[in-house]
């Protein structure tokens, strides 16, 4: 079976010699008409004759343009000639002739729009890009943060080619931590980088909307399934947190995510991960008391470090400093974690835990 050939994106070609001939004839006629009053004297008769001739030439150009349209020939420069001649006279014809000359010279090296658009996001064939992505998704817990800092460095001091490579990688494997690099691309001084960053942003939004529709349809099929409602709420929460939206849109998505979390928790009250996600979102929205109430049962069951850190923030913002000290003393080892924990967080935990707790752990 013969593969279908894509239609050319270029405008219909042909008739270039005809265009030049008509333009030269028009230039000669317009120049002659423009010279009639100065040569024969500025009288009402000579001015009227020149204007009448100019009107006839303009009408003939429109008829000629319609003829080219019927024959399927290129209408871009002929259309410019038909529009500029009535307004500018001989100057318009000269401008069209120069445009035709430049078009003939530069079209040999021009890239079609379709090829240019595809070049913005080429398939990654280089091993380093693939290795970098594998490092991000399979490395330690904070690997994506380190990668985002590297991406930001490239977007700040890299070459346009390096910046385009980063944007292409970020677009294909987008995470909220990559947003600063994408924003730097939108504000870059190089137009090609800005266009690619804007296209990447639109691509991320398009993929989000498609995923949103799919998850929403899944919830409609089984409204009582907490797993489906949780997936939709997490998707909305993650996109609201990505940093690409305006304030109103971000608030709208977080309210939708909040409602979805509540509905899912009503159907699965024992889901600890769901309680953690809901409490974190409540804290971000400023509902501190409700966030503490939602996450409190997790602390009694022996929570992980992420839950403990968010719960500690709830206690701090509520002014319950004695409870915060008790939490840090009881769970100091878990909250400090390992090498993935930022130094600043470990220092804060040590401060609230007190020297006795730290000394006891060191002795142990």
Q: Would you kindly provide a written description of the structure presented here, covering whatever features stand out?
A:
This protein is mostly helical. It has three domains: 16-110, no CATH class; 113-221, no CATH class; 269-364, Serine Threonine Protein Phosphatase 5, Tetratricopeptide repeat. Helix content is 77%, strand content 0%. It has helices spanning 16-40, 44-70, 76-88, 90-106, 113-120, 127-138, 143-157, 160-172, 179-186, 191-221, 226-240, 247-267, 272-284, 288-300, 305-318, 321-330, 332-336, 343-353, 355-363. It is elongated and about 105 Å long. The model is unreliable at 1-12, 124-131, 133-146 and 356-364 (pLDDT under 50). InterPro entries: ARM-type_fold, TPR-like_helical_dom_sf. This is Tetratricopeptide repeat protein.
């Amino acid at each position: 079976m013969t593969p279908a050939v894509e239609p050319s994106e270029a405008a219909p070609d042909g008739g270039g010699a005809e265009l030049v001939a008509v333009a030269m004839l028009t230039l000669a006629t317009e120049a002659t008409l423009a010279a009639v009053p100065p040569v024969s004297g500025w009288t009402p008769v000579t001015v009227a004759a020149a204007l009448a001739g100019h009107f006839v030439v303009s009408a003939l150009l429109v008829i000629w343009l319609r003829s080219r349209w019927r024959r399927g020939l290129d209408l871009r420069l002929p259309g410019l000639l038909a529009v500029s001649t009535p307004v500018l006279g001989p100057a318009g014809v000269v401008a069209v002739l120069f445009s035709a000359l430049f078009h003939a010279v530069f079209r040999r090296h021009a890239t079609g729009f379709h090829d240019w658009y595809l070049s913005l996001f080429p398939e990654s064939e280089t091993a380093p890009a693939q290795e970098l992505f594998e490092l991000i998704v399979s490395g330690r817990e904070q690997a994506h943060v380190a990668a985002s800092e590297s991406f930001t460095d490239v977007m700040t001091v890299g070459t346009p080619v390096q910046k385009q490579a980063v944007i292409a990688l970020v677009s294909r494997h987008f995470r909220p931590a990559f947003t600063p690099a994408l924003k730097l691309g939108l504000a870059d001084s190089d137009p090609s980088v800005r266009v690619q960053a804007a296209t990447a942003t639109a691509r991320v939004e398009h993929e989000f909307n498609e995923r949103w529709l799919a998850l929403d349809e899944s919830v409609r099929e089984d409204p009582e399934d907490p797993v489906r409602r949780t997936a939709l709420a997490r998707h909305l929460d993650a996109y609201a947190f990505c940093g690409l939206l305006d304030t109103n849109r971000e608030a709208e998505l977080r309210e939708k995510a909040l409602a979805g979390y509540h509905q899912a928790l009503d159907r699965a009250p024992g889901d600890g991960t769901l309680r953690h996600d809901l409490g974190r979102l409540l804290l971000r929205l400023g509902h501190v008391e409700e966030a503490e109430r939602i996450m409190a049962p997790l602390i009694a069951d022996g929570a992980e470090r992420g839950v403990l850190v968010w719960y500690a923030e709830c206690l701090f913002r509520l002014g319950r400093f004695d409870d915060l000290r008790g939490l840090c003393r009881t769970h100091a080892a878990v909250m400090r974690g390992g090498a993935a924990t930022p130094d600043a967080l470990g220092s804060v935990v040590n401060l609230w835990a007190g020297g006795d707790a730290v000394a006891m752990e060191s002795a142990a």
